[in-house]
């Protein structure tokens, strides 16, 4: 499924499922997760955002169903040069549009203020706080239900 969005710069961002051949390009934005990215692309749970079909990836997200059998955006990553252009919002919308459960969750560290602002703007609701994953930086969980979910 392709999803287009006109951003503030009048760019068109296309979001679609990532294919295994794109794993190396996605690892270009997130080299530390190369092995995971390859696995996610093979499993069909990664979505990629691009300006055009042949342009470099602007970001990606991963939608899994391993969190209490509910949808969970495991990871959202936007290339530094593509931030503040609506790419993250578009990736979250794609996850919500394709989620097959009534609830969709994600999480971010308390220190990640940009992600918290993005989630708030995108209509996600705080759902809880978990201590102990990253020492001194609790994890905030967010929920999205209803609009955009099946």
UniProtKB/TrEMBL annotation:
Mind telling me which Gene3D superfamilies this protein's record contains? 3.40.630.30
- State the InterPro entries in the record: Acyl_CoA_acyltransferase, GNAT_dom
Q: A Pfam family this protein belongs to? A: Acetyltransf_1
Give every N-acetyltransferase domain span.
Answer: 13-148
Read off the SUPFAM superfamilies from this record: Acyl-CoA N-acyltransferases (Nat)
Q: Could you tell me what this protein is called? A: GNAT family N-acetyltransferase
Species the sequence originates in: Streptomyces drozdowiczii
């Amino acid at each position: 499924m392709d999803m287009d969005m006109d951003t503030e710069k009048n760019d068109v961002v296309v979001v679609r499922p990532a294919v295994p051949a794109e794993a190396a390009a996605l690892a270009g934005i997130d080299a530390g997760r190369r092995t995971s990215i390859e696995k996610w692309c093979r499993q069909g749970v990664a979505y990629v955002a691009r300006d055009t079909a042949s342009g470099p990836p602007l970001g990606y997200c991963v939608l899994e169903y391993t969190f209490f059998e509910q949808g969970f955006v495991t990871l959202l990553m936007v290339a530094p040069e593509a931030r503040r252009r609506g790419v993250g919002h578009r990736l979250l919308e794609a996850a919500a549009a394709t989620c097959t459960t009534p609830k969709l969750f994600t999480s971010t560290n308390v220190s990640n203020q940009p992600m918290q602002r993005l989630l708030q703007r995108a209509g996600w609701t705080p759902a809880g706080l978990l201590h102990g994953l990253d020492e001194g930086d609790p994890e905030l969980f967010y929920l999205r239900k209803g609009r955009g979910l099946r």
